[in-house]
Amino acid sequence: MAQSVFISSTPFDLALHRKTIMDMLSQPQSGLPPLSVTMALPETALDERLRLVRNAMVYVVVLGMVRGNTETAGTRSLVQLEFEEAQQYSVPTLIYLMDEDEHLVLPKHVDTGAAAQQLADWKAALSQKQHVRFFHSAADLAARLQNDLHLLLKPVLTETAPAPSATPAAPASQAATSAAPAPAASAPASGMKARRYTLTPPRFAFFKEKVSPLLEQKETPVSDTVLQEALEFILAGNSMAAASGLNRGSTLGLEDAIELVRKMELVIIDTVQRHQVKK
């Protein structure tokens, strides 16, 4: 019997992404049990949505730049309610956020005002407490999901697995990184000065406090000098230079550094927006 993978997303702006995932998972996946994709339709009642989430083998949430429909007389979106149900029932969860620097998006598929702020708040909270991945296209999302499912789910034919060798196997996280080559580091060209916003000591201390939970997740020491440089590049909109600096100044691989920078950007954007509202 096929196992259900529940895909939670807004249906119209991410229609291509949903179809791409459906097409990918409809093909036999080597080493995985048969999978069936479940997606709620706009007219699906909330009770039925939550039942499907509880019964899923894996819960997948994909967030673009639209909050989507909300609960009756509430501010939480249906996608957020589905996510909370998956967490309450300990359904294995994979989280994917649209890379807002790289992903092409139509203006009509971008929320503004209160909806945009609520979505930004939730993304920032997810980035601080959960392991998230960023995707830059529908094809990239499907490829990342396929790889993550192979890491998450045990192979079906365990009895045919090769005998263990004398050399210890690489950790799953390392295997995932080596499966697809990371993009080459792009340090600033010789003679060119990368954009950078200078932080005073009090401002650095303020932003350091905001991103500290992200650094604790990585369990990788990052010196104040390296962190300040990264924050200054991020505030200047130079995310690649920030990731390159983190990669050179710590034990983070480039792919992990890029992922950390994306999370830091979400937290910083949310912090700046909140500060502007209070003024």
From TrEMBL:
Residues 162-192 are annotated as: Disordered. Pfam families: DUF4062. Residues 162-190 have a biased composition (Low complexity). Residues 5-86 form the DUF4062 domain. This is DUF4062 domain-containing protein.
